[in-house]
Amino acid sequence: MKVKTILVSQPEPKMENSPYSKLIDKEKVKVDFRPFIHVEGVDAKSVRQQKIDLNDFTAIILTSRNAVDHFFRIAEEMRFKVPDSMKYFCQSEAVAYYLQKYVVYRKRKIYVGTRLFTDLVPLIKKYKDEKFLLPSSDVLKLDVPETLESLNINWKRAIFYKTVISDLSDLRNVYYDILVFFSPSGIESLLQNFPDFEQKETRIAVFGNSTVDAANGAGLRIDIKAPTPETPSMTMALQKYITSVNK
User: Fold this and answer.
1) What's the order of all strands across the beta sheet hosting 87-90?
2) Is the domain of 32 the same as that of 97?
3) I want to staple 90 with a disulfide (CB 3.0 to 4.6 A). Which of 86, 95, 135, 247 is the partner?
4) Are residues 105 and 177 in the same domain?
5) How far apart are CA 143 and CA 163, in angstroms?
6) Residues 49, 159: one domain?
7) CATH classification of the domain holding 61
8) Which of 163, 182, 207 is the last residue of a domain?
9) Are 110 and 90 within 8 A, CB to CB?
10) In the predicted model, what is the mean pLDDT of residues 224-246?
11) The domain containing residue 221 runs over which residues?
12) Same domain for 24 and 46?
């Protein structure tokens, strides 16, 4: 069956000329964006119950923009003035760039990985005597704490925000040719919102091994996978699939 409509379970990209825009123009398909999950911050009381005192830390490990936002939100709620001496270890350039929303970049000690969490390891090792705080969601990839434990450093995780399943009830009678997922939480949201979901002719596209496992565990048929050596991005995988079926 030809592909005419796609639902991507993420917010719409803010950048102009995103890869999805090019896909829409080239293949003449309709692409909608709808987050299947969203983030909600926990309050300062909840953080205190985790026995977190921001005064105890000299370095912050930031894995996402959400981590940046919620660290500074909690700091404000706790009336904690973040010292200029605080060190920031950012998983990627995008996270480090976003940090400028809260600090004067050139006046702070900021260390930046390239993309993966493990890219931070050499940087953290250089400053192993610091006291590290990892602000995170309640959902955290296992490799993150495992990596930090292996470094034998003084660190602590704090849950500053939670991943929550979005209400998708308005989509009950809306059908798409392809549903695109990027996390196990997205698959969980689909099944919680639509426990009677029947895949039928709907194609499922998944990104990452953990999402593949979640889709398989839910008994879904996976039609499109990324990343692969041939299609390292989801838009490339969609492009390849659509080109083959829309002949």
Assistant:
1) 37-41, 154-165, 131-137, 59-62, 87-90, 109-112
2) no
3) 95
4) no
5) 18
6) yes
7) 3.40.50.10090
8) 163
9) yes
10) 96
11) 5-36+166-245
12) no
Q: Look at the chain and report how many structural domains it folds into.
A: 2
pLDDT in tens, 134-155: 999 998 888 899 999 999 999 9
**Amino acid sitting at position 143:** D
Regarding pTM above 0.70, the answer is yes
Residue that the structure tokens 């450093």 belong to: 153
Euclidean distance between the first and final Cα of the chain, in Å?
Answer: 10
Residue 179: what are its φ and ψ, rounded to 5°?
Answer: -110, 130
78 alpha-carbon distance from chain centroid: 26
Strands (E), the chain: 5-8, 30-33, 37-41, 59-62, 87-90, 109-112, 131-137, 154-165, 178-181, 203-207, 222-226
Residues 184 and 241 in one domain: yes
- The CA-based dihedral angle spanning residues 233, 237, 240, 242, taken in that order and rounded to the nearest 10 degrees: -130
Specify which residues 234 forms β-bridges with: none
